[in-house]
Amino acid sequence: MKFKLIVICILGVIAFSGCKKFDEYLDKAETGGLSEEEVFGDYVQTERYLANVYSQLSNEWMPVNSFTYAAASDEAKCPVVYFNGPQVFTRGLISQNHNPVDVWASLYAAIRKVNRFIEKIDAVPVKNATQTAGKVRMKGEAYFLRAYFYAELHKRYGTVPVIDRVLQINDNLNIPRNSEEELVRFIVDDCNEAAANLVPVNTSANIGRATKGAALMLKSRVLLYAASLLHNPTSDVQKWERAAAAAEDVMKLNLYQVDGDYKGLFHKRTAPNIIFQSTMNNTAWVQQMFVPSQGGLAWIQPLQNLVDDYEMKNGLKPGDTGSGYDANNPYANRDPRLAASILYNGSTWRDNVIETFVDGLDGLVSAEGAKTQTGYYLRKLLDENGSMTPDNRPGDHFWVYMRYEETLLNFAEARNEALAAPDNSVYEAVNAVRTRVGVNMPALPAGLNKAQMRERIRRERRVELAFEGFRFWDIRRWRIGKSVMREARGMRIVKQGAGSFSYTPFLVESRIYEDAFDLYPIPQTERNRNTALDQNYGYN
């Protein structure tokens, strides 16, 4: 059953529907203010309307200026305390009245736009075969976008009300949340509808728009999250089987390949592993993330917690017998994704040697500011061709929403959980990620049991997808927050003379994590408007 409801915040948007003016869209329209009939009575204006809906897609990098998901997880620390910063999460301050990255209202506003588009698209007039095909494509994109917005709601809040049409002032505004099964089914149905209408590969003119692969990949991600402990406390194996099958559908398209250019992933418009990518060049990343000696603010400072999970080149963890780990040279002979993701003492960045030792050029400090408080700086996602000084060059920074390596790891996780013991398909998927050219890590050892494979898949996911927004949500869906979020650790490096250093791990800060934090609270303002909305556990 689909509840016909408006949730939001849409009370403030209802007047918008009454006058039938698209004020948010109209800023982009060449002709100024347009009526509903003018927008959907013209193919070009309809296409522009949909393009505006794409602009509602957010990324998991820096959703607001002072907040990064990496620094709200066990990946990193933000060096400055902001009222709306990640410290709201790491200090246990999130509440129904204070969530710096609450998106309930904005996502439902975006859904309302899509619902309007879906209601109107069939009647949009066309002039030629190109526009006829374009209508089919746009319809598929609309279903993809609606599924995407609901997936984002599900990821954050759990169950939410499903709105499948444009609601009016006289509709009932007090209707409860749909069940988990109803919500996931609705998203999956939209993904299937999108996939049926979308092309496998876009033309160069449509790069950045959804494709059949993006729709199937979204379904894979949603079903993986739905099968995870947070949403599947009874460990229903059928949910894992459906998640594995959905990921395999993407693999069977034979359209994507792993990409060994790990450093260049976010700095190019096309690559064999890109499934869905933003077309916006995020030029602010250079200033936000560069090391301070080169004009940056270093808002993401990686933690030792993450560094510890990068294996040695021989596939062993640093603490394992025979790993070859040298505590006096801790970054030597490590998984190459470490050097591609994190700037550590002795790294080279834009022909400069990074000094994170105490009193070094970018050395460890304890006070707020741009210099590192963890002993590390971010490298991944930053284009080394960009700069702040002496010339300001933004470089190329394109957010990737979906890439094929995630598909393989989604499949491996779901397939492993669906079986009593991992089969060859699980090994093949993980090894395709870790042994690819450019990474060249050894294949997983044979004979792993289910629990051991689970641990290896989670570690591979943590390393491969570091700083891409996944860890924040993985912690929640796996329900491991209390075990991984309590301590944020760094590395204190002291120069000993003659080019040698001492390396001492230390506690950067203690953090607070409670089970309730696995989901966002429903904003109290929304519950005031819709009294049938019940609150998530732990926030009443």
- Rounded mean pLDDT score: 91
Q: Into which percentage range does the β-strand content fall?
A: 5-15%
Overall shape: globular
**Which ranges are low-confidence, i.e. pLDDT below 50, for 5 or more consecutive residues?**
1-32
Distance between the termini: 27 Å
Query: Spatial order of the strands in the main sheet?
Result: 1-3
Characterize the main sheet. Answer: 2 strands, antiparallel
Q: Write down the secondary-structure element order.
A: HHHHEHHHHHHEHEHHEEEEEHHHHHEEH
Total DSSP helices: 19
Number of E-state strands: 10
Rg value = 24 Å
Q: What percentage of residues falls in helices of 4 or more residues?
A: 25-40%
Short description:
The chain is mainly α. 38% of the residues lie in helices and 9% in strands. It is built from 19 helices and ten strands.
